[in-house]
Amino acid sequence: MSLHKDLELKEAVLNLPDKEKDKLLVRLISKDKMLLKQLHYELLEDETDLEDRITDLKDRLENLFEQQVGKIKNIPMYSNYKNLSSVLRQASGMVNEHEKITKDKFSVVECRLIILDEAFTRYPALFGPSALSPAFKLHKYMAARLKNAVKSFEKLHEDLQFDLNALMKSVLSFAADHRLDHEL
Fold first, then answer.
1. In-domain check, residue 99
2. I need a labelling partner for 52 at 20 to 30 A (CA). Which of 43, 94, 106, 159 fits?
3. Total H helices, total E strands in the chain
4. Mean pLDDT, the chain, as a whole number?
């Protein structure tokens, strides 16, 4: 049930003494980890902390791909498609969390492009034609991620687009060569 639908309860909560409201608020916040992270960012961090968060996210993405060097081969095999899909979803989850906390559009687009570029650069053979089901799923997933990145990129100010232009061109060129851009 939503507090907005139960106006009587909402009114009762708003009429609580400040001390009780504060206790209730702290108890509720502690139950939602994402809300706790968002509040920490909004209330206690500044521009320097955002830069640190972005650097940390890029490092974690790079480490994630580096850890896969021996596990995922650039050979079109069932297990490689599955493993790469899993890593890409994990990387995307990291960016999604960063986006929910910071709401920083530029770094989100940049990191999404980095993920696409890493996958395309490290595993080009996995994006060629294949009849394997995991390959089809990977290609479909990457096409959707690409479409999302392009849409987000286009919403950025032109000065910010300029900063990401080379990376975007590289990703789009690879996607066009491997027919992943058919949905754009």
1. yes
2. 159
3. 8, 0
4. 94
Return the structure tokens found at 76: 């079109």
- Is the Cβ–Cβ distance between 149 and 109 less than 8 Å? yes
* Residue 36, in any domain of the structure: no
Judge contact between 124 and 138, C-beta under 8 A.
no
- Nearest CA-CA partner of 84 in 142, 171, 130: 142
Higher-scoring residue by pLDDT: 62, 1: 62
Cα 125 to Cα 22, 76, 92, 169: the distances in Å are: 56, 6, 21, 20
139 is in which domain, residue-wise? 47-177
- In this prediction, residue 180 carries a pLDDT of 87
In a domain, 85, yes or no: yes
In a domain, 1, yes or no: no
Contact 167/113 with Cβ under 8 angstroms?
yes
pTM, to two decimals: 0.90
